[in-house]
From TrEMBL:
This is BTB domain-containing protein. Coiled coil: none annotated. InterPro entries: BTB/POZ_dom (IPR000210), SKP1/BTB/POZ_sf (IPR011333). Residues 26-93 form the BTB domain.
Length: 314
């Protein structure tokens, strides 16, 4: 059993959060545009083999103790840092930084930009997070970004993804990340709505990744899908009619089976009857079957004849 931490001490999670929020004891910087993110090698290197190689090998990064992230925007770099320290991420000013022209003096560390509020992120922002995770091989960040992309596209808020945003997100993914899972997610979503998506002008504008021939192939597939959809609707209609017909035939069969049972019982009564059961009827016993109930009746008086043990109540 792990003994409780002494009163006033920090647990590991709080210590990491404090280190992220203050930049204290930082021995590495992520430089992105005009912002410096103060980080710690012991935290970031085990999670990113790319960063570990840069700061431990014979490269400029190991001499300057800084990693340039200028190919990404600052909010995306911020998400990377956030995830490395918390296992989560958000793009809106939660990580304190100093300006690129500043030195990380003790007094400046106390004046770092304060964390901002968490807000919802767009589809494109999550794809950029996927891209930076893929670039630095941060497996946990890639998986988390993909989960949020999938959730965003499949959630009840997916109607907020506009005709322009989804194709733009696809174009961004194709040109910014090599992670195949995010391609699978986007392809699945577009395939689900292919009948609609293929008509979007924004999709047709993806010329670099989807040439005219590919568009024509997809449009041909959509045409065939529409034909098959109509055929399926027709078959479903036929199936409904056949189902009603079957139910009607089953009902008629049940009625015929019931009538046959009545007839068999009536013949059984006839075979056992020689006189009318009416004591006042003394004529020769002549009989007929009731057309409605198939009961045996005396032709003269109409008296009904049935077996004494008739358990059917017919």
């Amino acid at each position: 059993m792990v003994p409780p931490a002494p009163k006033g001490s920090l647990n590991l999670h709080n210590a990491l959060s404090q280190s992220m929020n203050t930049g204290q004891f930082s021995d590495l910087r992520f430089v992105c545009k005009e912002r410096h993110f103060l980080v710690h090698k012991i935290i970031v290197c085990p999670q990113s083999p790319v960063i570990a190689t840069g700061v431990n090998g014979p490269f400029r990064e190991s001499q300057t103790a800084s990693i340039s992230m200028d190919k990404f925007d600052t909010s995306t770099a911020e998400c990377l840092v956030d995830h490395l320290y918390t296992g989560d991420y958000d793009s809106h000013s939660r990580i304190p930084t100093i300006e690129a022209s500043s030195a990380a003096s003790a007094s400046e560390l106390e004046c770092l930009s304060p964390p901002g509020p968490r807000t919802d992120m767009s589809l494109s922002e999550h794809i950029r997070v996927n891209a930076i995770g893929d670039y630095y091989q941060v497996v946990g960040l890639i998986a988390l970004a993909n989960d949020r992309i999938r959730d965003l596209l499949q959630s009840s808020n997916s109607y907020k993804i506009t005709h322009a945003e989804l194709p733009a997100a696809v174009d961004l993914a194709l040109n910014s990340t090599a992670n195949t899972e995010v391609f699978d997610i986007l392809a699945e979503i577009m395939a689900d709505g292919l009948l609609t998506v293929i008509e979007w002008e924004e999709v047709k504008s993806l010329k670099s990744e989807m040439p005219d021939f590919a568009i024509k192939v997809l449009q041909s597939c959509v045409g065939k899908m529409r034909e098959l959809h109509k055929q399926i609707q027709g078959l479903n209609s036929d199936l409904t009619c056949k189902d009603h017909e079957l139910q009607s035939n089953q009902k008629a069969y049940q009625m015929a089976e019931s009538e046959l049972t009545h007839i068999k019982l009536s013949f059984e009564v006839l075979n056992k009857t020689s006189i009318c059961r009416n004591p006042n009827c003394h004529v020769k016993f002549e009989c007929y079957f009731d057309d409605r109930t198939y009961k045996l009746r005396c032709e003269r008086c109409g008296c009904r004849h049935s077996l004494p043990y008739d358990a059917h109540g017919l």
